[in-house]
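Researcher: We're teaching a course module on how sequence relates to structure. For the next exercise, students receive a sequence and then see the predicted structure as tokens, so they can try to spot secondary structure elements on their own. Here is the exercise chain.
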Amino acid sequence: MDHNVLVAFALTLFAGLSTGIGSIIAVAYKRTNPKLLSVSLGFSAGVMIYISFVEILPAANESMKAHFQSGVGEWITVAAFFGGMLLITLIDKLVPTAENPHEAHEIEDIDIEKVKSQKLHRLGIMSAIAIAIHNFPEGIATFMAAYNDIEIGLPIAIAVAIHNIPEGIAVAVPIFYATKSRKKAFRLSFLSGLSEPVGAIIGFLILMPFLNELVMGIIFASVAGIMIFISLDELLPTAGKYGEHHLSIYGLLAGMMVMAVSLLIL
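Model: And here is the predicted structure for the students to work with:
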């Protein structure tokens, strides 16, 4: 198997299974560290936003120019960019707000006594399903970016891994308090992240045989749209919810600067 495929899949697997880190935090600590989460989520958003506009969209345009002689390629790039946003928006709309992983959760954010009466175990299961649905397109995006260029794929994988940690908390907390089992909480949270490598496998099996400049351009533009939407709709609002707005912005700027410097060095 192509070495690039193995590396891309490994990065996607790492990003997806980082939900397990969230579950460890949830069952090991009684309180969330809001400052660390604000900075981390802001950093992740900065990486995604910078690399989307500076690397991924230009790469999409280059692929389109290689396929089309006229300016129609740029129009397709823009359409695919907003198409990626539309895709993740539609997925968001399909998931109920209370069980949507794009709605922020802290360890202490869940009213245990109240949620007990609402069947904690069901809440955890539904959260895991919701996260799996959300992470599927992220898995395809991470895999395709890493396959085409490891320098782009690596920071994307790290950024996705960071933003998957709070999602792991959202699954682990209700399961842990419903079953009193750390193993079950960790296992379900861990497994909920498997949809990302599954997305990578499906992307490999379905998309790889049809790859050309046009397909790559559409994929890259869509990936950029998905990343921007996640950053603006999930990461920054979640960081702000923790009450550390300025820290999230500092993290955002730090993520952009680190990404810019790394691209200049590599």
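Model: If you want an answer key for the exercise: Residues 119 and 178 are 8 Å apart (CA to CA). Residues 3-28+35-265 form one domain.
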